[in-house]
């Protein structure tokens, strides 16, 4: 007898849609682009051939349609790792749980999930307006620690080396490290035929729970560790260094691997923390990354 999932755990609307995303299984494409900002959804879907459905509940806005014949859903996650927990569990439920029977399906489906987000470059080479693909995410959030069977997902050696180098304060969190999906990394990387302006950097991305203190920014509130970003910049693992900071990538990589999906994070670098600069035209850079990503997905 298969386990039936209770109403309080798998929450469905009277129309049979999953609670936060407000989507029915038929409204989700197998390739999903996630963006933080709900207003960025239309920046992606304006390139679609057709839009077959739209939905919005809270910060979770979806447009599903086709791009060069390929069916794609673009969904906003809002800001932060906590929202990634909601979005990834609900995306997985839409394909892997039978909503009528409230049971896990016998045959599971893997989704391709591609983040198009903004990020801050940590080191001088990660200049504003560049594109960066995250090869690995270092998670300083705690979402993944609530789940079992993360042993095979985490790169423990990497995380320990990060903890040792930064003398990480255990009161903050337990850092974890998760690699990107290799097939999507290859598919989304630039090739020799790409124009110079579209060359993507690859790097190691820090995901944290906040934009200010947790990314070492000081406005009025002083930090406990004033050397946080200096420690992040001087960290090396097998000669590789941390390149950028944002708020979703590592959690996405962890949740995707845990649930059997493929995820990759594409970053438009809008700030550079070493030079203290911010992009003079962030929307243009984001638009260029959207066009680059759509082209790569559809190749
Ligand atoms: C902070 O401004 C937000 O920007 C980045 C961070 O990860 C965080 O969500 O991504 P998005 O531009 O995709 O939201
Ligand atoms: N998003 C972030 O989280 N950090 C930055 O520095 C820029 C965008």
Ligands bound here? 1-O-phosphono-alpha-D-ribofuranose, uracil
User: So how many helices?
Assistant: 7
- The CATH topology is given as Rossmann fold
Order of adjacent strands in the largest pleated sheet: 7-12-10-8-13
The name of the CATH superfamily reads Nucleoside phosphorylase domain
Q: What's the order of the H and E elements?
A: EHEEEHEEEEHEHEHEEHEEH
Give the DSSP E fraction (strand runs of 2 or more residues): 25-35%
Specify Rg, calculated over alpha carbons.
Answer: 19 Å
Can you tell me about this structure?
Residues 32-278 form the Nucleoside phosphorylase domain. This is Uridine phosphorylase. One of its GO terms (cellular component) is cytosol. InterPro entries: Nucleoside_phosphorylase_d, Nucleoside_phosphorylase_sf. One of its GO terms (molecular function) is uridine phosphorylase activity. This protein has seven helices and 14 strands. Strands 7-12-10-8-13 form a five-stranded mixed β-barrel, surrounded by four helices. The termini are far apart. It is globular and about 55 Å long. The chain has helices at residues 40-45, 81-96, 156-166, 182-188, 228-234, 249-259, 282-298, and strands at residues 31-35, 50-57, 60-67, 70-76, 97-98, 103-104, 112-121, 131-139, 176-179, 200-207, 236-237, 240-246, 262-272, 277-278. α2 (81-96) runs parallel beside α6. 42% of the residues are buried. The chain has one domain (25-298): Nucleoside phosphorylase domain (Rossmann fold, 3-Layer(aba) Sandwich), CATH 3.40.50. It has 299 residues and is of the alpha/beta class. Bound molecules: 1-O-phosphono-alpha-D-ribofuranose and uracil (URA). Uracil is lined by residues 118-120, 211, 215, 245-247, 270-271.
């Amino acid at each position: 007898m298969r386990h039936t999932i209770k109403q309080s755990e798998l929450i469905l609307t009277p129309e049979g849609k999953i609670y936060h995303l407000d989507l029915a299984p038929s409204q989700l494409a197998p390739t999903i682009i996630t963006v933080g900002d709900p207003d960025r959804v239309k920046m992606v879907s304006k390139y679609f051939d057709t839009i077959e459905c739209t939905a919005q509940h809270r910060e979770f806005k979806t447009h599903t349609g086709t791009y060069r014949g390929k069916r794609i859903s673009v969904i906003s996650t809002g800001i932060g790792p906590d929202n990634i927990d909601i979005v990834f569990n609900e995306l997985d439920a839409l394909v892997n749980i039978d909503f009528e029977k409230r049971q896990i399906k016998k045959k599971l489906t893997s989704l391709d999930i591609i983040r198009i987000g903004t990020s801050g470059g940590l080191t001088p080479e990660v200049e504003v307006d560049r594109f960066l693909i995250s090869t690995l995410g270092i998670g300083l959030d705690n979402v993944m620690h609530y789940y079992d069977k993360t042993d095979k997902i985490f790169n423990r050696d990497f995380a320990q080396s990060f903890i040792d180098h930064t003398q990480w304060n255990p009161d903050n969190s337990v850092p974890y490290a998760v690699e990107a999906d290799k097939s999507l990394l290859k598919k989304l990387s630039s090739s020799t035929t790409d124009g110079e302006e579209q060359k993507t950097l690859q790097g190691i991305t820090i995901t944290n729970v906040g934009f200010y203190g947790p990314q070492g920014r000081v406005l009025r509130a002083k930090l406990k560790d004033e050397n946080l970003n200096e420690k992040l910049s001087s960290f090396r693992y097998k000669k590789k260094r941390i390149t950028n900071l944002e708020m979703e990538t590592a959690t996405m990589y962890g949740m995707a691997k845990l649930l059997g999906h493929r995820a990759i994070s594409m970053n438009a670098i809008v700030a550079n923390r070493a030079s203290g600069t911010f992009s003079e035209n962030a929307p243009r850079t984001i638009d260029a990354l959207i066009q680059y990503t759509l082209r790569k997905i559809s190749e």
